[in-house]
Amino acid sequence: MTDLTKLKIAEARDALRKGDVSSVDLTEACLAAIDKADALGAFVHKTPEIAMTQAKSADARIKAGDAPDLCGIPLGIKDLFCTKGVPSQAASAILNGFKPEYESTVTSQLFDAGAVMLGKLNMDEFAMGSSNETSTYGNAINPWRRGNDDTALTPGGSSGGSASAVAADLCLGATGTDTGGSIRQPAAFTGITGIKPTYGRCSRWGIVAFASSLDQAGPMTKDVRDAAIMLEAMCGHDPKDSTSADLAVPNFEAMLTGDIKGKVIGIPREYRMDGMPEEIETHWAEGRKMLEDAGAQIRDISLPHTKYALPAYYVIAPAEASSNLARYDGVRYGHRAKLAQGDGITEMYEKTRAEGFGKEVQRRVMVGTYVLSAGFYDAYYNRARKVRTLIKRDFEEVFGQGVDAILTPATPSSAFELGKEVTDPVEMYLNDVFTVTVNLAGLPGISVPTGLDSQGLPLGLQLIGRPWEEGDLLNTAYALEQAAGFVAKPTQWW
Amino acid sequence: MSIDIETAARVAKLARIRVEEDALPALAQEFSNILGFIEQLNEVDVEGVEPMVSVEPMRLKRRKDGVTDGGMQDKVLANAPDVREGFFAVPKVVE
């Protein structure tokens, strides 16, 4: 069998079970592809020994007839997940040298299911960014280019390494996390599928915290079926995360019928933004038509507080981050600054954090500190939390009126150039304009690749579902995927 | 809202991040831009709206109040930059 790395998870699973291929073969093929792809900056810590050990035991397990879906499947793991004995730095210099003594719940579940870890994947520092340019490891690069133009493009962020690795066939799937769009935006920029489940579906235990009320893990895969398979293995109640839901996890893959006849799809008018490129608008209209042709009923809806989602997010996320990142003080793990004669503990904290945190992280920690400080707490933080209630209510109302899913663009543009001078951080924040509402409301959202723009770059559409109904959402996404028939792949240059 | 240099310095101090004096004007400008963006929230009528405290309405699980973990001093200390005699070591805190 050639091109093992190009297999999808479902195809590899079936081939493994039939004995057509071994996990060792698959894993070796991926490791070889990874070694040739350093130019993409996707894998930042490679773990070939762990991978080969896991692959061998997966093969034994498959032979014994005890093989869950992910048994023997080589995956990449975002650097935000703590993996036992393997560097887990959240792409930050402040966690230089940190090797957790424990395993995150999500990666434990994946490995218990027999998945193979190829290594750790690049990301924006502490998941703060939309272009993977804030990483201490350097940029991750999008395998896609504009035709013959060799300008390096962003794979998006924060899960940029995950997106780049999956799109370039370095692994069969990858974990991502999503606080404001960090799974869905990079998935859209690289022509892959990414789902953020309902808040509480996946345990956050052992995932480096950014904004605890918004963070969720999810899979980034080559298609919707793979997303269903991988999501099922990642979900489930965990007593170690008090916000994880004690709900049964359905067999998501079994729910992929492609039948969406009679489903009501909402098109929110507020997502038609001023200055939105015409191409994005056309693409969105095409998606609407595809779902309509598949038998869905299209309904124009209103989510009146959409405009306030980004400003609310940029209060709530930094506020939570300033609290979560207080733990990086140079005492228990990671970097500690060299101290001068006479420096006390305060100097140790201040120098350590100035050296260890990158500029964007420092900025967000300080903005968070400001909005939580005495005298401003009500004006900023509490007001943002009230607006969040209204944003969630907007969704509850449309779902209450019988809407099953909402279709929106995934991003306001296709992948943009790396290294573009960003003088105003707010400009970068606008990348999350279509995705951030979903995190604020705790809803499941999926990005599906549905076409190419005029420069030959992938575009994605986002579907937003009702809470806990990932299965139904995945099925709608599956119908959209079938209709769009997106099969394009980046031309290998790396 | 415009943030002055003094406020920027105070916030940096509160956040325990050292910012050199010559970097403060640029920082103050960035804060002003971001806060200007956030000010849009003032347009929203939030009268009588409860602030969101929990994303999905769930009752927190209860468990017996007992020790579930521990006895792993070596693991706890394994990643520390400075460890002495089984403790995290830091610069002198009390005179």
Secondary structure blueprint with pairings:
The complex is a heterodimer of chains A (494) and B (95).
Chain A: H1 9-18, H2 23-35, E1 43-46, H3 48-63, E2 74-78, H4 105-112, E3 116-121, H5 160-167, E4 173-178, H6 184-190, E5 193-196, E6 216-221, H7 224-234, E7 264-268, H8 278-293, E8 297-301, H9 309-324, H10 345-356, H11 359-372, H12 377-400, E9 405-409, H13 425-429, H14 436-441, E10 445-452, E11 458-465, H15 470-484
Chain B: H1 5-14, H2 24-38, H3 73-77, E1 83-84, E2 87-88
Antiparallel strand pairs in B: 1-2
Helix pairs in contact in B: 1-2
The strand order across the widest sheet of chain B is 1-2
CA-atom Rg of chain A in angstroms: 21 Å
Structural class, from secondary structure content of chain A? alpha/beta
Tell me, rounded to a whole number, the average pLDDT of chain A.
96
State the helicity of chain A in percent bands.
25-40%
Q: How many strands, what sense, and barrel or not for the largest sheet of chain A? A: 11 strands, mixed
Percentage of residues in strands of chain B: under 5%
Largest interface: A-B, 71 and 50 residues
Give the overall average pLDDT of chain B: 93
How many strand elements of chain B? 2
Largest sheet of chain B: 2 strands, antiparallel
Number of helices of chain A: 15
The rounded Rg of chain B comes to 23 Å
Beta fraction of chain A: 5-15%
The quaternary organization reads as heterodimer
What is the rounded distance between the termini of chain A? 23 Å
Detail the poorly predicted runs of chain A: none
Helix content of chain B: 25-40%
Q: Give the H and E element order of chain B.
A: HHHEE
> How many DSSP E strands of chain A?
11
**Taking strands numbered 1, 2, ... along the chain, how are they ordered across the largest sheet of chain A?**
1-3-2-4-6-5-10-11-9-7-8
